[in-house]
Amino acid sequence: xxxVTLAIATGFALVLIGLLGALTDRNxxxxxxxxxxxxxxxxxxxxxxxxxPGRTAPILxxxxxxxxxxxxxxxxVPQALVLTAIVIGLGVTALMLAYALRLHQTRHxxxxxxxxxxxW
Amino acid sequence: xxxxxxxxxxxxxxxxxxxxxxxxxxxxAELNATARYYADNTAADTGAANIVTAIIVTYRGLDxxxxxxxxxxxxxxxxxxxxxxxxxxxASRIAPPPAGELLTTGSRLLAPLIxxxxxxxxxxxxxxxxxxxxxxxxxxSAVLLLLLTDxxxxxxxxxxxxxESLSGFIYVLIGVAxxxxxxxxxxxxxxxxxxxxxxxSAGAIPVIYTLIGLKVGAEFASMLVSLSETEEPR
Lengths: 120, 234
Fold this sequence. Notes:
The complex is a heterodimer.
Chain A: H1 3-24, H2 28-50, H3 69-72, H4 76-107
Helix pairs in contact in A: 1-2, 2-4
Chain B: H1 2-23, H2 33-46, H3 51-59, H4 61-83, H5 101-123, H6 132-149, H7 157-181, H8 205-229
Helix pairs in contact in B: 2-3, 3-4, 4-8, 5-6, 5-8, 6-8, 7-8
């Protein structure tokens, strides 16, 4: 198993673990943690897809000159996408935590079963 | 328990889909056309040594502006959601037990160093791994350390919002300057490209990334302050 497939397999496993936690756990805080785990898994898969075996980081310096860049570096586009995804993921997590805090203030509970207004 | 059963069934199906994707996957041996363009032309186009930075700040600069806007929206919503039901008078909050000697002294020693590291990370974003978002997160971690030491410490919301809105405003101004002086919105060639690999090079990229760093740092800091100023109703 190469590094690339290992990274992608780990990413998929993290997505599944995160979804399992988000769907089965009753505690809102643990669900938020599960969502961040799934988020990390997606990022790992994206980075793994952009990874080309035997190549180095897309930064041009003494080690990788401009002329040989195309033959030596990995795909920089997924890395840029993942940078964006991490930042947005952090924003989403902060929002979820803020809502969890408000829910706990109003209902004094973090158990998802206490919140039945939207249930039919 | 029937619920858990269906969840596991769903995840097994999803896992089968993932496995199907993985079995047929072989990594490319060559870069695809887009990546090859970036690899070949980034140095000449933008003068940035870090290609990821060149993509984020210049090639896809408009997307980054949108991303920063989303982050601003998040900070605003967090503040809005948490502001309702907050104690109006900060003096009425119960003082938590004092932080230990280690944390107090440690944060006094570390906070300036963390700020310095954050500035280093976003000022060198076009040369080394890192950049505005990472540097901004490091800046905010210094604020987090100070808040852990003294949860009642008062951070000026006005200072945070002034830094945040000024850097955002100048960011957009630089983008418009690109339309007037160079090839298009957020073109970094409004400033000379300089020597490849030097700190002051790559045109407007260090300026833009510094602004993004300040803006992101201010947004994260405002989220942290909002969260710390909220407490349990008694």
